[in-house]
Design brief:
By secondary structure, the chain is mostly helical. It has one domain: Growth Hormone, Chain: A. The chain is 74% helix and 0% strand. The chain contains 23 helices and no strands. Helix 12 packs antiparallel against helix 19 and helix 16 packs across helix 22. It is globular, with a radius of gyration of 23 Å.
Length: 489
């Protein structure tokens, strides 16, 4: 008996006729099919892919790094004098400033991704980078905590379009099981750079009194100016989608598109309409990725927002707290790249997500409940490695299991919006009155890791079952509307 159980497939016809789609691909890039194949055969696949890596990943990683720095430098400014000058120790003012950033960050994810192709990658991304850089710089001149709230809300509005765009763009360039290593390299490189934000902030805080400007104000002014400069570089160097790129030859472009076509059948984009957006939102699996990402970004935001404050509670000095907040990223980078490599190689995601969530759980438990300062500090390494590694793992898993540009746009936006939810939770459960140990917040973080492990295993079993039913011919229609497509478990 045939069953109707399957994931919602795309309502566009972009993925339904692979042969027609491949012919359309060759027509779109202006190649005769036979000549294209001859030219493509002469290309070195590894060399071409490496060239794409070099052209795409560094500029995206550098820009995303400063989006993270501009997002998380509140804690450094807090311990550098902002708390006293703006009276942020009154009530929950600091938590309010931290949490309100995420409201527009969540709300504008899908609209921003929906207009990305229409406006153009270069125009859209350079605009939002310059916009939030200007607001970041302006934060150095606020005199009241209410204006700081407004600035954080504006930064949330502009940064909302950046994260999902990065995932969307990167996932369109590579085969499904090449994506995890690239996302991990992109995200961890950004994280490594942004991980030195406390060190940079400490150095900038030493400018205290220069030009009659406080040290914490210099943090926002200098880092905002750097972001503005990056926004200009983005305009000239940011890559577009594969079918619209200008840095590859026609033969290389055709080669890239045919690789994607053979892998998942969505090399040529379909139009994004309101009807399609709501249709794709009906696929419950993309919401699970968002929940899992919220569980992983909760400890990541906890560490970036509150780690210097937690270290102060371990009786480290302000300088030591800032300087000791960065070494964890080196260990996290090695751990995450190992899991990305083995995950792509095995074409499997769920088990490695569960393992990294378990690392986070162990690390948070050590930081919360260990008696010695050394053990508590060691726990921050495990928590950072697990959380930072889980994020690209979940992003890659979501990108692997959708077909068509319209659904990819919605999926990446919904998933990255989950990171905003994680930020809201982190900003609210780590309360000022629980400083500096933040035990209730650490309990919530531990619970989130248990939830993430459970969801990963549930999704893996679900995809395994659906793949089996499809191979046995017991489903109505191919998975995601693409013949030969199977979900990554």
């Amino acid at each position: 008996m045939r069953t109707s159980e399957h994931s919602n497939s795309s309502i566009s016809d972009v993925t339904k006729e692979p042969d027609l789609q491949e012919a359309k691909l060759v027509t779109e890039v202006g190649f005769d099919q036979e000549n294209a194949k001859v030219t493509i055969d002469d290309l070195d696949e590894r060399k071409t892919v490496r060239y794409i890596d070099i052209r795409i990943l560094p500029i995206l990683a550098a820009t995303y790094a400063f989006s993270l720095i501009d997002r998380i430098n509140l804690s450094s400014a807090f311990v550098s004098g902002m708390a006293i000058d703006l009276k942020l120790q009154v009530g929950n003012r600091y938590s309010i400033i931290a949490v309100l950033y995420f409201v527009p960050f969540i709300l504008f994810q899908i609209p921003a991704n929906a207009i990305l192709r229409r406006v153009g990658v270069r125009n859209w991304l350079s605009f939002i980078v310059i916009a939030w850089g200007a607001v970041q710089l302006a934060m150095g001149f606020v005199k009241h905590w209410g204006w700081l709230v407004l600035c954080r809300v504006l930064i949330g509005c502009f940064e909302a379009g950046f994260g999902p765009a990065m995932v969307f763009i990167i996932s369109t360039w590579y085969k499904r099981h090449e994506v995890h290593k690239r996302l991990a390299l992109f995200y961890l490189s950004s994280g490594m750079i942004s991980g030195f934000s406390p060190v940079l902030s400490y150095a900038l805080s030493l400018l205290n009194g220069k030009q009659n400007i406080t040290g914490w104000s210099w943090i926002f002014i200098i880092e905002g100016a750097i972001t503005l400069a990056l926004g200009i570089l983005v305009y000239f160097f940011i890559p577009d989608f594969p079918d619209k790129n200008t840095f590859l030859t026609k033969a290389q472009t055709t080669f890239v598109l045919l690789r994607v076509e053979e892998d998942r059948g969505d090399s040529i984009p379909d139009g994004i309409t309101t009807r399609k957006v709501f249709h794709h939102l009906g696929d419950w699996t993309i919401w699970i990725y968002g929940i899992m990402l919220a569980c992983s970004t909760l400890p990541a935001y906890m560490l970036t927002f509150f780690l210097p404050i937690i270290l102060r509670g371990m009786n480290f000095t302000t300088a030591q707290s800032l300087l000791l907040s960065s070494p964890q990223l080196g260990f996290a980078f090695l751990s995450a790249m190992f899991f990305a490599w083995i995950s792509d190689r095995s074409k499997h995601r769920a088990t490695f997500i569960a393992i990294q969530s378990l690392l986070t759980l162990i690390g948070c438990s050590m930081t919360a409940f260990a008696e010695s300062t050394a053990a508590r500090y060691a726990g921050t390494f495990f928590a950072t490695a697990g959380a930072m590694g889980c994020i690209p793992s979940i992003l890659a898993w979501g990108a692997n299991n959708v077909v068509s540009h319209s659904k990819r746009s919605v999926q990446s936006a919904v998933t990255v919006a989950g990171s905003g939810v994680g930020g809201i939770i982190a900003s609210t459960v780590f309360r000022q009155q629980d400083s500096p140990e933040y035990i209730p917040g650490l309990w919530v973080t531990i619970g989130a890791q248990i939830l993430c492990i459970g969801l990963a295993l549930m999704m893996s079993l679900r995809f395994y079952r659906v793949n089996r039913l499809c191979r046995e011919g017991r489903l109505v229609g191919p998975l995601e509307g693409r013949v030969g497509f199977f979900y990554t478990t």
